[in-house]
Amino acid sequence: MNTLSNNTDFLLSIENLTVSFDGFKAVDDLNLYVDENEIHVIIGPNGAGKTTVLDLICGRTKASDGSIKFHNKELTAMREHEIVREGVGRKFQNPSIYEDLTVFENLELSFPRGRSVWGALTFQRDTDVTTRVKEIAEMVFLDTLLDKQAALLSHGQKQWLEIGMLLIQDPELLMLDEPVAGMSVSERKQTAKLLNEITKGRSVMVVEHDMKFVEDIAHRVTVLHQGKILSEGSMAKVQADPKVIDVYLGH
Amino acid sequence: MTSIKSFMSRQELIGILVIAALLFVVMPLAMDIFRLNLFGKYLTYAFIAVGLVLCWGKCGILSLGQGVFFGLGGYCMAMYLKLEASTPEATAIQSTPGIPDFMDWNQITALPWFWVPFNSLTFTLAAIIIVPAIFAFIIGTAMFKRRVGGVYFAIITQAIAAILTILIIGQQGYTGGVNGITDLRTLKGWDIRTDEAKYILYYVNGALLIGVLLLSQIVLKSKLGRLLVAVRDQEDRVRFSGYDVSNIKIFVFCFAAVLSAIGGAMFTLQVGFMSPSFVGIVPSIEMVIFCAVGGRLSIFGAVYGTLLVNWAKTTFSETFPELWLFGLGALFIAVVLIFPNGLSGLYRSYVAPLVDRIVSVRPRTGRPDAPPPAAGFGAKTTTKPAE
Amino acid sequence: MFADYTWTELGSIFAMQGFAGLILFSVFVLMALGLAIIFGQMGVINMAHGEFMILGAYVTYLCSNFVEAYFPSLFGVYFFFAMALAFVAAGSLGALVEWSLIRHLYKRPLDTLLATWGLSLILQQAYRSIFGAREVGVSLPNWLLGSVPLTDIIEIPINGIFVMVLTFVIAIGVYFILFRSRMGMQTRAVVQNRVMAGAVGINTQKVDRNTFALGCGIAGIAGSAFTMIGSTGPTAGQLYIVDTFLIVVFGGAASLLGTIASSFAISQAQSTMEFFLSGSMAKVLTLLTVVGILMIRPQGLFSLKIRR
Q1: C19 touches chain B (CB under 8 A)
Q2: Which of A101, A115, A162 is the closest to B242 by Cβ?
């Protein structure tokens, strides 16, 4: 990979990214690029640093060294909510939704308006909001459950709700950490369909273990191992790579 | 009517009307002025409890330093009243006439600079709001911007309560020391010690409390109110939805601080003194129990909780002083282990469905913020205690 | 403020205050060690910790009276029985409290704080009902009385030295229990990964109970040592609880060394300032400094950067 390339070509360019926890390098001198409209999947064995990479991009973990540029803007110095406002959305591994609130309220809170204290105090639930919430709810198969308390949803529905909460922010880069973990087969199929639909017009980074699912969605795959890139390219290329088979797929 | 409905459910409207009726009609008719004044004193603690509902119950920030803000409000008021009571004529026997008596006893010969502005009532009223707000803002900014929360925040606020108490007691020349600021008499020449004044102050206090309840209701019913709960349950999700979580926390902490300070100022006016015994660790943590007994999620419950605990305290500590501490200790344990939602939780499980059936003509629709209707899931599943 | 003293006097003052600070340091360390185990290892805030300490003090008081009345010949060494008994009493009460109260609240640290505060009120009132509101003191055996003259100005009381030695021994003991014994290994395993520890056959509930009991037992010993240098009242424990919590937080909750270092810093700062300022201002300044530093460095003095 040519690190001297003009990185404005990419939506997201990660260069020489390193983070260490007490000397242990969870991510080690990583270079990774995401194109516009690309679905980029990161795979790798446990502890390879996949989730840490997502954490670093969205500002949850601070990098020890290196840079993360989004639209050519440096993200490493920004705080989480500023990164979100730049257009980066993040879904967590375990569904993180507001269980005490209804589906409608969950989506409404994620609607990108009234994000200051005063804005939240004076926020009005106008037709813009309700239309958008309904639109998104339909997309994530929850349109009939708007008044249901989120705690009462099934595990798969919670995952979808969280995806919906990201979609309503209309991010340019969507990061999903194991979006189909714990889902039933039919829910998986629905989710794959959903992802194919929502990725139109935006880039998506996915961390996933389910190889079948990865094959279905990925444009490009990066294999991480011990914080470094082991292999990169199309799914077919990666699957054929002997190094990958050795540390990961072969088992 | 639609505007009321947008920020108050039927249950909540009933709640506030019942409290108003209790404060303005029932209690004044049922009690003599001595008891009513005592009741008014309890009501000043309710301001703190309402603030704690927003800060602790809804947003999950446990402050063990609310006495600090109660004290700041109370001391601001007391400083003004003390200066008014310390005219050169009234203090002619002192070696330095015209300064508060305790300063004279401590060989202070001139009014300290920070006392001077408290000659003005306008300044004092502004200070009652602004001083605690700034103080809370500083603490909140320092802590929440660095993501200090949970038990660490609780311990630090407790330490601040301890520091302020030691400071007040130690600097008795400037603060009146352990006795506090006593012997307060008039407000702009109006004697606050007469029965008539006590009635008026009681009503002012009640009206302020209703105002604070309405204000809190507006906050809770806005998107900010839902954000508070969201921050408590899924702080990271709120952050990754593009909100600056620390600002939300700072706001609610300052809001609770200002409410406490209003209570403190009204306390000084009604009771006629202010002392460090309302500032320190022990009173501050007792204030949390007022809120917990009422139900940490309900601003109305907080009012009843405050009244109940204080009534019990007065009754028991008059007759069985030994039992009271056992009782209070048991109360702390009970509201945590057995009734985490306090009185309002009990009310919602048992009484609210009845009230609903009586007052409502048509069946309720699934309103998002109301307790769920009886069908399917009981009230038990809706609320879980803040962690 | 230094102008009124000569250099030798100043030196002696610092030495004496330093020594007074060392005694305070010992009390802080003894109390903070128990807290650091419970808070640092389990994340539980035990507001009744001071009352466990006072329990140890009352046990020592009872022992001293009992031995003085019935076995005066053993009076010289009663203190060692008393200490063991204090450990057992406070530890058993701790196990009981863990079983009845704490184990229901592991996921709700703020609620634990309130519940243990309630417990502290109950214990205080119980002490008041049983032993009376007045402070009680124990009589010391002869070998603990008197002092060692160091220079003509500086004298060091023997009971102070004894408490310091005791603190040292207990600190070493705690270190060995936590970092060199099987029990400590299990405790740390449970702290780091409860589910996994359970899966490899550690009885996590038992470990929790033992850890809590150990922390309380050490508080009992602290109370026992406390009787050597001061008298005991029902509310004496509450006086120290906020200081000790600050010490533990200041030192970095999970670090034993941090706890000791911060005890040292805080006690020395306080006792040195106490000579020149009034006692209350010394305490205000010390606490303010600690709170100020914690606001700048919330993770405390000694802490690890961990992977979330």
Answers
A1: no
A2: A115
Spatial contact of A14 and A227, defined as CB atoms under 8 Å apart: no
Matching residue, tokens 């209703």: B210
What pLDDT shows up at residue B305? 94
Task: Please tell me which residue of chain A has the smallest CA distance to B146.
Answer: A79
Identity at A53, one-letter amino acid code: V
Total domains, chain B: 1
Pair of tokens at residue A118: 């005063």
Q: Are C244 and C45 in contact (CB under 8 A)?
A: no
Per the structure, the complete domain to which residue C148 belongs is given by 20-239
pLDDT recorded at residue A147: 92
Kindly write down the DSSP assignment for every residue of C232-287, as one continuous string.
Answer: B-TTHHHHHHHHHHHHHHHH-TT-HHHHHHHHHHHHHHHHHHHHHS-HHHHHHHHH
Query: Could you tell me which chains touch chain C, where touching means 3 or more CB pairs under 8 A?
Result: A, B
Distance from CA of A139 to the nearest CA of C (A): 32
Per CB-CB distance under 8 Å, the chain A contacts of B242 are 81, 84-85, 112, 115, 169
Helical residues (DSSP H) of chain A, grouped into ranges: 50-57, 80-86, 103-110, 117-121, 127-139, 155-167, 185-198, 211-217, 235-240, 242-244
Cα Rg, chain B, nearest whole Å: 22
Would you state the structure tokens that stand for residue A19, as one six-digit string? 């983070």
The pLDDT of residue C203 is 85
Rounded to the nearest angstrom, the minimum Cα separation between B298 and chain C is 17
In this structure, what token pair is assigned to residue A52?
Answer: 């840490």
Query: pLDDT band for position B4 (50/70/90)?
Result: low
For chain B, what is the mean pLDDT?
88
**The domain A7-249 is classified under which CATH number: 3.40.50.300, 1.10.10.60, 3.30.1390.10, 3.40.710.10?**
3.40.50.300
Question: Residue A9 corresponds to which tokens in the numbers above?
Answer: 């070509």
Residue A21 Cα, gap to closest chain C Cα (Å): 6
Best residue in C255, C307, C308 for a mutation probing chain A (most A CBs within 10 Å) = C307
Look at chain C and report how many structural domains it folds into. 1
Three-class secondary structure of residue A6 per DSSP? coil
Q: Which amino acid is at B167?
A: L
CB C216 within 8 A of CB C90: yes
Amino acid, single-letter form, for residue B326: F
Q: Give the chain C residue nearest A47 (alpha carbons).
A: C307
Q: Are A79 and A31 in contact (CB under 8 A)?
A: no
Q: Are C80 and C143 in contact (CB under 8 A)?
A: no
Across the range A97-112, mean pLDDT stands at 93
Identify any residues that bridge with B273 across adjacent strands, giving them in sequence order: none
Single-letter residue type at A248: Y
When pLDDT is averaged across residues A45-71 and rounded to a whole number, the result is 88
The closest of B48, B102, B89 to B71, measured between CA atoms, is: B48
What residues in C contact A60, CB-CB < 8 Å? 308
In a domain, B373, yes or no: no
Taking contacts as CB-CB distances below 8 angstroms, the residues of chain B near A114 are 223
What residues of C are in contact with residue A50 (Cβ under 8 Å)? none
A126-165 pLDDT, tens digit each:
899 999 999 999 999 999 999 999 999 998 899 899 999 9
- What are C180-224's pLDDT values in tens digits? 888 888 888 887 777 888 888 888 888 889 999 999 999 999 898
Q: In sequence order, which residues have a C-beta less than 8 Å from that of residue B39 and are 6 or more positions away?
A: B27, B31, B202, B307
pLDDT of residue C305: 44
For testing the chain C interface, which of A18, A20, A21 should be mutated: the one with the most C CBs within 10 Å?
A21
Task: Write out the residue range of the structural domain in which residue B150 sits.
Answer: 2-280
Q: What is the ipTM of this complex?
A: 0.88
